[in-house]
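for the recovery benchmark. tokens below, seq after
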């Protein structure tokens, strides 16, 4: 089950990536790092994702978005995230959190660091910490459909179905062909209808 959850989150979780400025060694924001052409390409991918009606084609676009965001531009961040991913796959969550804590401290504008840490907290059923990291991820990238999906799952798991439904609808606004979000919307809507809400 844990491996399934990691695979699910890995398929949809993405983030903005800071790099170090060559001039002062300080982290720069994803917006400062991104070249206009790259940002335009990413925006175009999101437009394509929103318009795509074929599930498989939409998944390929979503993976391209994830790939565009997963390269941090920093060897240090890339190394740490790689080690964290290995620890997650091995179900060594405490080790993964150590690496992810370092990433969020050293690269506070790197949304994928926050997002991966949210995933580990989710896997440990630590929903409060997961939600805090998801919130930070969404501050950096409001279109982060993976973080939104994670938030919706937590809301649903904690019985806040109306909020979960609204959040899944936000996911579908960005990624309309995400089948898991479509199914969740149908399931929650049926539950709420059955309660007379």
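predicted aa per position
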């Amino acid at each position: 089950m844990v491996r399934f959850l990691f695979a699910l989150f890995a398929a949809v979780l993405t983030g903005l990536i800071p790099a170090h400025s060559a001039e002062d060694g300080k982290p720069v924001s994803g917006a400062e790092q991104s070249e206009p052409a790259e940002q335009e390409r990413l925006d175009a991918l999101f437009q394509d994702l929103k318009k795509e009606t074929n599930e498989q084609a939409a998944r390929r676009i979503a993976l391209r978005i994830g790939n565009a965001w997963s390269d941090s531009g920093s060897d240090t961040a890339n190394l740490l995230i790689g080690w964290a991913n290995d620890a997650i796959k091995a179900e060594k969550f405490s080790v993964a959190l150590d690496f992810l804590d370092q990433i969020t401290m050293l690269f506070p504008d790197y949304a994928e660091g926050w997002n991966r840490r949210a995933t580990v907290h989710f896997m440990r059923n630590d929903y409060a910490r997961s939600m805090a990291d998801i919130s930070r991820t969404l501050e950096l990238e409001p279109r982060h459909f993976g973080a939104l999906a994670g938030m919706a799952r937590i809301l649903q798991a904690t019985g806040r179905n109306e909020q979960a439904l609204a959040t899944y609808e936000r996911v579908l606004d960005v990624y309309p062909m995400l089948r898991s979000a479509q199914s969740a919307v149908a399931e929650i809507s049926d539950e709420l209808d059955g309660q007379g809400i």
